[in-house]
Amino acid sequence: MTKLELITQEWMSQEIVTSPLYGTIEEVLIGTNQRVDEWEPLFIIKNLNGTFQQITVGISGILSKLNVSKNDQITPGFVMAHIIPDK
User: Fold this and answer.
1) Which residues does 27 contact at the CB level (< 8 Å), separation at least 6?
2) Which is deepest, 4, 14, 25, 81, by most CB within 10 Å?
């Protein structure tokens, strides 16, 4: 398993976490309204080659919205989650 450290994008007052690749969500490691710490694993994705990718982000805050669940198919740019960052 390799680790992918994503850069989030600001959208209104939140940061969005988008998929960097084509694949399948193997695990969702967080839940809505949970605290996210910087570089904490959020998702495990199985890419088209069968390799597992652990997804982290470089911000801390509260997960306000989760758009994926286990076994969901994703594509690059798909919005997986919204995080309200710490001030």
Assistant:
1) 43, 44, 70
2) 81
pLDDT mean over 52-76: 97
How much is the mean pLDDT over the chain? Answer: 96
Burial 58-73 (b: 16+ CB within 10 A, else e): ebebebeebebeeebe
Topology adopted by domain 2-85: OB fold (Dihydrolipoamide Acetyltransferase, E2P) (2.40.50)
